[in-house]
Specification:
The complex is a heterodimer of chains A (114) and B (114). With 114 residues, chain A is mainly beta. Helices cover 0% and strands 51% of the residues of chain A. The chains are: A mainly beta (114), B mainly beta (114).
């Protein structure tokens, strides 16, 4: 059963706490992405990685960190520096080839700050 | 800079009628264009993409999209709407010269009434 998994589905964070969102894929995709979704704002790119041990900042990277130690995994840490972290977080992956490679999305993690 | 605009926050259509969800884009070169659909509290599902060639692209669930280079548009269409098509629709663009990340529009909510 191939695809992208994200965990947990719901996550609650206290003020000043760091939390880590998990993203795993078994599609053998080289590229992985993290997006943040807020109502009425669409999806905004946080970080992406096109190869193991390398990643680039997206449009809203401040207050977030990532790692890419394995091809299958791209965890996102929401740090205490992120002042408004309540949102729906989506992970995606794609091939990196010539041509337009669609991204496949996980089911998302909803983060709420208490 | 790359950008995508979805000028309508919401589109309402009666079941059985044709539907159109609008998208315009701005990229420096030839674009790769995508449509995705999102059901509540779920990840995005890929519908269709345009790379090159035929301006009319057919995708999943009976959807199609028409690429118009002169109007820089990529509108999503379906000849006969179903109540089950009610969801949030996102248009996205990728500039082939700028890596694999996508730029998403803010989304259009499609509501199909019975």
């Amino acid at each position: 059963d191939g695809g992208i998994t994200q965990s947990p589905k719901y996550l609650f964070r206290k003020e000043g706490q760091n939390v880590t969102l998990s993203c795993e894929q078994n599609l053998n995709h080289d590229a992985m992405y993290w997006y943040r979704q807020d109502p009425g704002q669409g999806l905004r790119l946080i970080y992406y990685s096109q190869i193991v041990n390398d990643f680039q900042k997206g449009d809203i990277a401040e207050g977030y960190s990532v790692s890419r130690e394995k091809k299958e995994s791209f965890p996102l840490t929401v740090t205490s520096a992120q002042k408004n972290p309540t949102a729906f977080y989506l992970c995606a992956s794609s091939m990196v080839l010539q041509g337009a490679n669609e991204q496949f999305f996980g089911p998302g993690t909803r983060l709420t700050v208490l | 800079a790359q950008s995508v605009a979805q000028p309508e926050d919401q589109v309402n259509v009666a079941e059985g009628n044709p539907l159109t969800v609008k998208c315009t884009y701005s990229v420096s070169g030839n674009p790769y264009l995508f449509w995705y659909v999102q059901y509540p509290n779920r990840g995005l599902q890929f519908l269709l993409k345009y790379i090159t060639g035929d301006n009319l692209v057919k995708g999943s669930y009976g959807f199609e999209a028409e690429f118009n280079k002169s109007q820089t548009s990529f509108h999503l269409k379906k000849p006969s709407a179903l109540v089950s098509d009610s969801a949030l629709y996102f248009c996205a663009v990728r500039d082939p010269q700028a890596g694999t990340a996508l730029i998403f529009g803010k989304g259009t909510t499609l509501s199909v009434s019975s």
